[in-house]
Amino acid sequence: MKLLTFTVPCFNSEGYLPKCVESLLAGGDDVEIILVDDGSTDGTAVMADEYEKKYPSMVKAVHKENGGHGSAVNTGLEHATGLFFKVVDSDDWVKESAYRQILETLRELAGGEQALDMLISNFVYEKEGEKKNKVMRYRHALPENRIFTWNEVHHFHKGQYILMHSVIFRTKLLRDCGLTLPEHTFYVDNLFVFEPLPFVRNMYYMDVNFYRYYIGREGQSVNETVMISRIDQQIRVNKRMVDYLSENVPKRKGSRKLRNYMINYLEIITTVSSIMLIRGGTEEHLQKKKELWDYIKQKDRFLYGRLRYGILGNSMNLPGKGGRKISVEGYRICQRFFKFN
Length: 341
Description:
Largest sheet: 10 strands, mixed
Low-confidence stretches: 337-341
CATH class of the largest domain: Alpha Beta
Strand content: 15-25%
Number of strands: 10
Structural class: alpha/beta
Mean pLDDT: 90
Radius of gyration: 20 Å
Shape: globular
CATH architecture of the largest domain: Alpha-Beta Complex
Order of helices and strands: EHEHEHEEHEEEEHHEHHHHHHH
């Protein structure tokens, strides 16, 4: 069994896949790299086969019909043999010095008495055109360099959340929790770091800048114009998160910090959905925004109250055209501060 499986969803990635794969190969025989060719029409499939041929003990090429990012992650999880599992997008890469520290820590924890469920590390926004890159770190929210539980988690600041780029899960946990991401849907990375959380009993945080998240490429799924054009998929993910939190996350006292974290994360996703619909600007977009909030209210009135009457919920639901303008300006300030698209 390998220590760590990387799944790399690939769709028409020939232009940037080598940088990603070469960074992962530095892990040596402890790692398994699954290149999931998701129906590419360029040279990605050939490139994946060449890597498998050159590094047969490390790289596995899997070819499938196009099903989207979530489908590729599902396929990677099916084929994974590693004790731990991480997704790396094909236009991203990892930092070698931090990579070696993480592998050393995983080796130590793998031999311990307690099975680790989730390892968290920092990621860096490698934003096109930016001279200074923002680092997402968790040093004030999470204990460092030791195993801890949800009860020991501190306050997360707005915009400070555990994203797909931050996490390495225990592979068996992902399988046991039944994680299956929807096909032909963007933004499912939010589900990947949301639905397993009630099954996570312990965590370990390393304050190292491991994952390099490339952002700003034209046509990228997080580009604002692209997000507005795919808003129905964002709403689909948003609603599934509402359903999951309402139906599967207990309200008992022992899970209070977990539940609060998940509500706060859902608040950010709902804010993004709302602002993209406001930015869309048409009557159809505004109606979809109303329908989303009505859906949350009908599903879970307590959850609706938490989301609707917080600072973000109020700011996304200011009345009239003037209110929507204020909402957009507030979003712009957040963009400049947090450095996202």
